[in-house]
From TrEMBL, chain A:
Entry keyword set: Molybdenum, Oxidoreductase
Protein name: Carbon monoxide dehydrogenase large chain
Domain of life: Bacteria
Gene Ontology terms, MF aspect: anaerobic carbon-monoxide dehydrogenase activity; carbon-monoxide oxygenase activity; copper ion binding; iron ion binding; molybdenum ion binding
Residues in the signal sequence: none
Automatic annotation (TrEMBL), chain B:
Keyword tags: 2Fe-2S, Iron, Iron-sulfur, Metal-binding, Oxidoreductase
Pfam families in the cross-refs: Fer2 (PF00111), Fer2_2 (PF01799)
Domain called 2Fe-2S ferredoxin-type: residue spans: 1-77
Any GO molecular function: metal ion binding
Organism: Meiothermus granaticius NBRC 107808
Name under which the protein is recorded: Carbon monoxide dehydrogenase small chain
Amino acid sequence: MAMDTSNLEPKGIQGLGKAIKRKEDARFIQGRGNYLDDIKLPGMIYMALVHSPYAHAKILNIDASEALKIPGVKAVITSKDLAAAGLSWIPTLAGDKQMVLADGKVLYQYQEVAAVYAETRQAAADGAAAVQVEYEPLPVVVDPYKATAPDAPVLREDLKGHMTGAHGPRRHDNHIWTWDVGSKDEAEKTLEKSEIRIKQHMVYPRSHPAPLEPCGCIGDMNPATGRLTVYMTTQAPHAIRTVLSLVTKIPENNIRVISPDIGGGFGNKVPVYPGYVCAIVGSIVLGVPVKWIETRTENLTTTGFARDFHMDVELGATKDGKVTALKVYTLADHGAFDAAADPSKYPAGLFSICTGSYDFQKAYAEVEAVYTNKAPGGVAYRCSFRVTEASYLIERSMDVLAHELKMDPAELRLKNFIQPSQFPYPSALGWTYDSGDYEKTLKVALERIGYAELRKEQAEKRAKGELMGIGISTFTEIVGAGPSKDFDILGIKMFDGAEIRVHPSGSAIVRAGTRHQGQGHETTWAQIVSEELGLDVDKIIVEEGDTDTAPYGLGTYASRSTPTAGGAMALGARRIREKAKKIAAHLLEVGESDVEWADKKFVVKGVPGKSVTMNEVAFAAYTNLPPGMEPGLETTYYYDPPNLTFPNGAYICVVDIDKGTGAVKVRRFVAIDDCGTIINPMIVEGQVHGGLTEGFAMAFMQEIAFDEQGNHLSSNFTDYLLPTALETPKWETGYTVTPSPHHPIGAKGVGESPTVGSPAAYVNAVVDALAHLGVRHIDMPITREKVWKVLRQAGVDSF
Amino acid sequence: MEIILNINGQDRKLDVEPRTLLAHAIRDLGLTGTHIGCDSSSCGVCTVLLDHNTPVKSCTMFAVSAEGHTITTVEGLAQGGNLHPIQQAFHDQHGLQCGYCTPGMMLASIALLERNPNPSEEDIRFALSGNLCRCTGYQNIVKAVQQAAQVMGKKSEGLGSAADD
């Protein structure tokens, strides 16, 4: 029976600012999504991977004979087989290279050692379990601070003695690069002269995006045509197509990448993983489609981790609380290969946003990256390239300074904000902030949460020995990479494309080079086009994720979709409107200069009754054109943004801490975001809720941990803890709107603000609750065990 | 071995290995709305209903053990061409983003509402605590369950008063 979905579709012209329901929901609520593992191709076989139990070991022998005896197992490949195809190593996005399957040695636990192909998923798994690998364990480097000790074992023997890497000189075989920005000399001199100087060490622990859908791939080489179709859980299908072409030497026109519905990405689905390559190679060699779907353990142990920044900050200020200078040293643990997904020029991403929302005159940041026996990664987990780390660093440091000055942390922030009159604001570390009104946003948050009352309550509780804390984070993000003069990935400039085709009946198909994973592009892109062209949203279909049909683009991550593709969408629509205006003048029988676009239709100036709609113009574009005009009503627009965008917000968290157990309860959380123009308030709100929850997870639960032997201690969801509905706090949201002056619709992007901004608010709240006990900092994740220890050390009674 | 599973009101004949998980068996029948996400029965994206109102993580049950029970998957929720109130509510309240947890989340919600037609927010959060969501932060899912409770309550009230007449 045909389903009645009439209650699902938003209808009519629905432009910017409308909280319409999502167009993409219909398939998902009916179980008709099309995720990677839902795709079945004729003759398809399955692949499973063999993983190393050791974090660092020589491979003495790989024996696949028992695996090949298992019914259904068709082939087993190792690095040697890949070498024959020139694919034993592949380039990473960070200028390094990585093994596809272990070549002579393994460098982290669970590293991929062999691939097994079989007729069924079960046979493939049985085959993988039957491959016998002989290892000789080697000494392990787990602690990044020990990676560059003179006697540290050399991890990357392929790079031994190469003292220059992709990002400059290397000072040790386990050192990858050192990147710095700003004037060290000036920052140090200013710090020396500053009346107040604080120093703090803080760790942003290793985390993992862990989308609920694991990664997967189907390689489908058609032996008859030589055309390779790759179905892949990728946030960046076009970039993947280009990389595949470069790596496999298959001409790019013979590669089609399809990214079907994605069950969450959060940065995990940006890089190229060994499993993808092995599925593709398997299909090329065996001539049948090969499917590989990760297990959860494979996802958590081998695919792109995030964070792992070990930071030392020095901050100077005057006695009355005016910041003077910031100096940061960071040690970045990149694991065994430098596979961070950053724009080429920025090996430490956009970490130099670490001066935050404050008017620092002098600043210097240095980041050193090292190899360790851990999985590669360094992906932008729901953040724009290391912005989460930077934001945490400055927001935590401001609280340490407030503590030192015995000043209220809100007052300290208000004293140091960049003022609205200073925009466009050139930061000490080289960015030009587009817009913001930080004071207003913080004041809205303070008012909303009842800050003064809460401080009173806290004082009363403290007098009674009860523990309550209030934490503030007034962060500034930098997103929307990016302008082609500075931003590229493997040389490909980070613009994005949109294609709009208006059909004769006034409906349209819209395509973009981005790839949503839940962000709602099928609705928001339609809203931008509806706003600009006056078409009904229910007549606009949005398509992403097929490189054969979508215009080129760098994909969806780093909050870049709205700043880049959103801009392309608006400007593409405006270009169509220019042509439409000429057609409208023809239909209205007046000169083009007599026609204006008003109230979502073309009107003859001064004659409000005389107008044509875009629907009428669309029909005329195919049936009744002005003489000599090219038929049709469509365009492809590539948008190269002139600058990045700088979303910001003020978050305030209130916690209560149980003295006996150390349990932290988030009582309230107010998030006031300023992401510029809001396209769909419902979707923005949903993004904020989700990001606050992931921030909560990082602050209190999630950590990818290792023991001294490099054994992975967080390899499944019973050890790597994600928040459920039960522990997740209730969110109170609000907005200030300071449009981006350079973006076509003034939007800045929002998907990552809450993940970037919230961790510091949680930690600041916990430290604030314990500050009178002499506590100045606690590293994430703040488990109840950690708090319990702090309380006992401070001599606090349990009751 | 050959088994018969009653899924969404239909008897389906399958040939499975004894170790085949119910989740895999259901998906192999083309009912791909039941997802798989963790291999350790932690995430709940594979949740189905057994005998109409018992939520079960179908990755934690063998297909052979499900014989003799009725199984409801997301594909069986809409009836007579109309969406189930929980489906409408997830849409109305923006209770989904990537959609991967949604089928399991909706089925777990229905199981709750069958047991407890007027759940408090705390009840809802507790009942859904076996189902993870990475996108929504749960708040809109809670609202969706509250909307569905209201709609389903009204419907059964309507039925009740008709019976009284």
